[in-house]
Amino acid sequence: MTAELVAPAWMHEPITAELYESWSEEQCAGIEIVDGMIVVSPSASKRHNRLARILANSLDAAAGPDWNADTDFDVRLQDVPLTNRRPDVVVYRADTIDITPTRPEHVLLVVEVVSPGSETTDRVVKVDQYARAGIAFYWRIEQAATGLPLLYTYVLDPATGTYRDGEMFTGTAKVVAPFPVEIDLGRI
Predict the structure, then answer these.
(1) Is residue 64 left, alpha or beta, with left meaning phi > 0 and alpha meaning psi from -120 to 50?
(2) Three-class SS of residue 94?
(3) Is the omega angle on the peptide bond into residue 81 within 30 degrees of 0, that is, cis?
(4) Burial of 180 (0-12, 13-18, 19+ CB in 10 A)
(5) Residue 8: is the preceding peptide bond cis (ω within 30°)?
(6) pLDDT score of 59 more than 70
(7) How far is Cα 22 from Cα 40, in angstroms, rounded to an integer?
(8) DSSP helix/strand/coil, 164
(9) Residue 72 per-residue DSSP state
(10) What is the pLDDT, as a whole number, of residue 2?
(11) Which of 55, 58, 117, 132 is most buried, most CB within 10 Å of its CB?
């Protein structure tokens, strides 16, 4: 006898913005919606979460009163088909703190901390989605197994609608885009 894995029905049904907005915060945690379909991500490691928190705290301190940096909330990239991403860190306009959902026009920078299993998504898929949405800056952090994490920065080229490579940092980094911030990647 063979056992078949049967995916739950909700994994085969497109999710609309209206349906998603009716769900509780607990139902939305740990998932993203891509082209109307639910993408379930495994829980992040403690190292991953710590790195995101340290980065968010550094960005928040450097951003001044006009910008906030936070973790763990949706950015609505498009309504139809619904695409919600949950970047590891988001820098967004402070005056939009109570506006839900957060839209690309509210966002200055998104950061993804690459984890095992998210390499292709964070290096290719999300880069394209964030660029198409018009988010000005994208940072990717690679957790090097034998050393300090590496921070890769990208800047949106408005003429092409794609990101161009910025600088790469490791250790204690003094990053100037989108605003001057000192980040100690060695604190994890």
Answers:
(1) left
(2) helix
(3) yes
(4) exposed
(5) no
(6) yes
(7) 18
(8) strand
(9) S
(10) 47
(11) 55
Question: What pTM value is reported for the model?
Answer: 0.88
Instruction: For residue 131, give the H/E element and its range.
Output: helix 126-133
Q: What is the pLDDT of residues 18-58, one digit of tens each?
A: 999 999 888 888 789 999 998 877 778 888 888 899 999 99
Report the side by side order of strands in the sheet with 31-34. 37-40, 31-34, 83-85, 75-78
More confident residue, 46 or 60: 60
* Maximum Cα interatomic distance, the chain, rounded to a whole number of Å: 63
Task: Say how many CA atoms lie within 13 Å of 125 toward its Cβ.
Answer: 11
Strand positions, DSSP E, 115-186: 137-142, 150-157, 162-170, 172-175, 181-184
Is there a contact between 133 and 163 (Cβ–Cβ < 8 Å)?
A: no
Give the residues across from 107 on adjacent strands.
Answer: 92
The helix (H) or strand (E) run that includes residue 40 is strand 37-40
- Give me the torsion for CA of 137, 25, 38, 5, rounded to 10°: 140
| Percentages of the chain per state (helix, strand, coil), in multiples of 5 | 30, 35, 35
**DSSP 8-state secondary structure symbol assigned to residue 8:** -
Euclidean distance between CA atoms 35 and 82, whole angstroms: 5
